[in-house]
Design a protein that fits this description.
single chain, 601 residues, alpha+beta, 6-stranded antiparallel sheet, 27 helices, 17 strands, 43% helix
Length: 601
């Protein structure tokens, strides 16, 4: 991802730090850079030149207020102007009230260099992160935490509590607004940060809160109408070079099925994976049904190990090495001439209840619910953490558990099912799932129709019982395009059109296909996943070497700094090779070692 960098302060430096901050996020030579050097504020936008090409900042008539936008806004009148001009005009007219209505994926900086006023704004879901820090009266901000480290005198100190949270609750991201670096925080979604040189304030202008209001009969037609509009508005905003990430799931299939005939002709569906994986097989059926253009990017998983460090570095340590395929695929698409991609970002969570398990409905008390979530989302249990970490880190265990409990208790909703999804969206989706988008945006721009304001305002009123097990999602897909609903879903190997009672039999189908594939030695059925990390670290020489170089190497930072118990790591690796599924734990441990090497050595 490119993004914004800048700072606001009265300081003057012998060497201007903005250039160093720019270079820290400039991953490619073909990025476009817009710079502004004011009396009090320095700011730069580093971007791909795909969206607004007009140089920023944009100023009002008397040059008192400037604006920089990274991302894309899809409000009706925004299409008549460049995004920055539209938002600046509306901000002058309506003030901060304009932000709640902005529809898109964006990070905004509005400033008055004469009066020493600065405002940072994130979109409803924080899809374009903004990190910030205060240092000697200066506010430093960036789309990437590592850029703030380039500000003169900023300390590069490891946040030890983040380290413990990463190992305990990495499945749902690093909790809260903290980062790996002491003093650097992440702005919450739908937030406005104001700074006047002395005081910093942070306020929310919108929040996602599910409410049980709509029944199936009302929700489905409304959702189809608004979703089609959201998809096509975004597709129309790109003249050429547009693709869509198409997997074997329902999210991307829904986006493809919502395109009108004109936009379908200019979009190319892209599927990636090993040649025999289920995503490739199902995506081929989908594109044939729609007569859509389709390309398949296959890879040798052994060769993707070289992207492991990139994943950790480019996400500021927030993603793990087992998604090394992301930068490879994005780089290939960039080489093919693609500029922008559509995707079905977290639609299965928002509408499909993919993180809404049956056990949530069985919880009789909030305490039961809290216990269930704590157990479900731990990477390493408390007992394992005590064996894994040096005792000096044990004091953070209770702090992390307390923070987890606080985040659950602060989650909003009128029932446990709605509280569950609010919690997941504001933790896992915000701090972990989003990192895939961050990685892709270093090469291609991104459009997110599934987060359209009108679409979200319908979904948030659908009861959890309808979202559970993709119940209303399947009805939505049948109404959107019945032919697509007849094609199997990758996770169940059953078509969405089948009745709900039969949907519960999916585990039998998956088990049968797994047995048949094993008996036939791969001739019947197809591989379940596009990147089997568990097997790679057992049988792939390059990935085994990465394990040896990071986790079995006595000179690794995790051992030199006396953080991790090396003997216990050996047990984890040995148990995995002997058949116990520890791949996720190993991915987090490798990533931790790379974080220390890349940012703190």
């Amino acid at each position: 991802m490119a993004g914004i960098v800048g700072y606001a302060c009265e300081c003057r430096f012998d060497v201007e730090p903005l250039a160093a901050m720019i270079n820290s996020i400039k991953y490619r030579d073909d990025y476009v850079i817009d710079e502004f050097y004011g009396n009090w504020i320095r700011i730069a936008r580093v971007h791909l030149g795909v969206f607004d090409s007009k140089k920023q900042p944009i100023f009002n008539e008397d040059k008192s207020i400037g604006i920089v936008i990274y991302g894309r806004i899809h409000n009706e009148y925004a299409r008549e102007f460049d995004n920055a001009t539209y938002v600046l005009r509306e901000f002058e007219r309506r003030g901060s009230n304009v932000f709640e209505e902005l529809n898109g994926s964006f990070a905004i900086v509005i400033f008055n260099d004469r009066n020493r006023e600065l405002m940072l704004v994130t979109d409803r879901f924080g899809t374009r992160p903004i990190y910030y820090a205060l240092r000697d009266g200066a506010l430093i901000f960036s789309s990437h935490a590592r850029a703030i480290l380039r500000y003169p005198g900023f300390p590069r100190e490891l946040n030890e509590r983040t380290l413990v949270k990463f190992l305990m609750f990495g499945k749902i991201g690093i909790l809260g607004d903290e980062t790996w670096f002491k003093g650097i925080k992440l702005m919450p979604p739908a937030s406005i940060l104001k700074f006047d040189g002395r005081k910093l304030t942070l306020e929310k202008y919108w929040d996602l809160e599910y409410r049980c209001e709509l029944d199936e009969e009302k929700a489905v037609p409304l959702l189809v109408e608004k979703f089609k509009k959201a998809v096509n508005i975004r597709a129309e905003s790109i003249a050429d070079g547009l693709c869509l990430f198409l997997s074997g799931g329902l999210d991307s299939r829904s986006v493809l099925g919502a395109l009108n005939a004109k936009n379908l002709r200019k979009v190319t569906a892209v599927t990636f994976g090993t040649p025999d994986c289920d995503d490739v097989a199902i995506a081929k059926i989908v594109t044939r049904k729609l007569s859509a253009k389709h390309i398949v990017i296959t890879y040798d998983p052994d060769k993707l190990v070289k992207y492991a460090k990139d994943v950790v570095y480019l996400t500021d340590g927030q993603d793990t090495v087992n998604v090394a395929y992301i930068p490879y695929v994005a780089e290939k698409l960039k080489e093919m001439g693609y500029k922008c991609f559509l995707q079905g970002f977290i639609f299965d969570v928002l509408l499909g209840g993919s993180f809404l398990p049956k056990k949530v409905f069985r919880c009789k008390t909030f305490s039961d619910f809290l216990t269930f979530l704590t157990t479900k989302y731990m990477v390493f249990s408390v007992e394992e953490i005590r064996k894994l970490l040096n005792p000096k880190f044990h004091r953070y265990i209770s702090l992390c558990l307390n923070e987890f409990c606080r985040l659950v208790k602060d989650s909003k909703g009128d029932c446990l099912g709605n509280i569950n999804d609010y919690f997941i969206i504001n933790t896992r989706q915000r701090r972990y799932t989003l990192m895939g988008s961050v990685l892709n945006r270093y090469f291609l721009e991104e459009l997110l129709p599934t987060l359209d304001n009108d679409v979200i305002d319908i979904i948030r009123r659908i009861p959890p019982e309808l979202r559970f097990n993709h119940k209303i999602y399947r009805k939505f897909l049948i109404s959107l395009n019945p032919e697509l609903a007849k094609i199997p879903y990758q996770k169940t190997l059953l078509p969405p059109i089948i009745p709900t009672p039969l949907w519960y039999l999916s585990f039998i189908i998956r088990l049968f296909m797994k047995v048949m594939r094993r008996i036939s030695k791969g001739r019947i059925g197809y591989a379940r996943t596009y990147f089997d990390f568990d097997n790679l670290i057992c049988y792939s020489k390059p990935w085994r070497k990465l394990v040896e170089d990071t986790l079995l190497n006595e000179d690794s930072e995790i051992y030199k700094r006396n953080i991790i118990n090396r003997d216990y790591v050996k047990v984890i690796v040995r148990d995995h090779i002997n058949g116990k599924k520890n791949g996720e734990k190993i991915a987090f441990l490798i990533s931790l070692e790379l974080i220390l090497r890349l940012f703190f050595r």
